[in-house]
Amino acid sequence: MKVTGWTAWDNKKYKDVPNKYFKRAFDAVVKEIKEKGYKFSGTEHQEAPNGMPIIDDRYAFRCSCRMWGEIMSESYNLKESEDDTYSYVLWAWWPMIIGQDGDKPIFEEQKFPEEIVNE
Fold it and tell me: Given the DSSP bridges, would you call strands 3-7 and 52-55 parallel, antiparallel or unpaired?
């Protein structure tokens, strides 16, 4: 399986990835993110016009913000140990915080796919 495009979460043309293919699709999304350097939150996965991966030109890879955070954690090796079950939080709902400016957080820059499939 591989990522063949990116579209909006609410694009109804694509059926959700069947459960029996979910792990393979997950791995394909991680591979694509690693290769292209995409970085965006689970919220953007669900709300951006180009936040949802299309798998094999036929399936939508829709997931929760938490699961998207797990994808980002896996893609960028964010787990501090094998027992780390919270690294997904770094990208689940917002971009990863990389510093502070007074009371304001400084977020990691996001990178999205440029092409959008709107069919």
Answer: antiparallel
Q: What contacts 46, CB < 8 A, 6 or more positions away?
A: 9, 52, 62, 65, 68
- HEC string of 67-117 equals HHHHHHHHHCCCCCCCCCCCCCHHHHCCCCEEEEECCEEEECCCECCCCCC
Amino acid at 79: K
Angle (nearest 5°) at CA 73 between 72 and 78: 135
pLDDT band at 90 (very low <50, low <70, confident <90, very high): low
CA-based nearest residue to 45, from 1, 12, 75, 7: 7
46, amino acid identity: Q
Strand, coil or helix: 71: helix
**Which amino acid does the sequence have at 63?**
C
Question: pTM, whole model, 2 decimals?
Answer: 0.82
Of residues 82, 61, 81, the one with CA closest to residue 71: 61
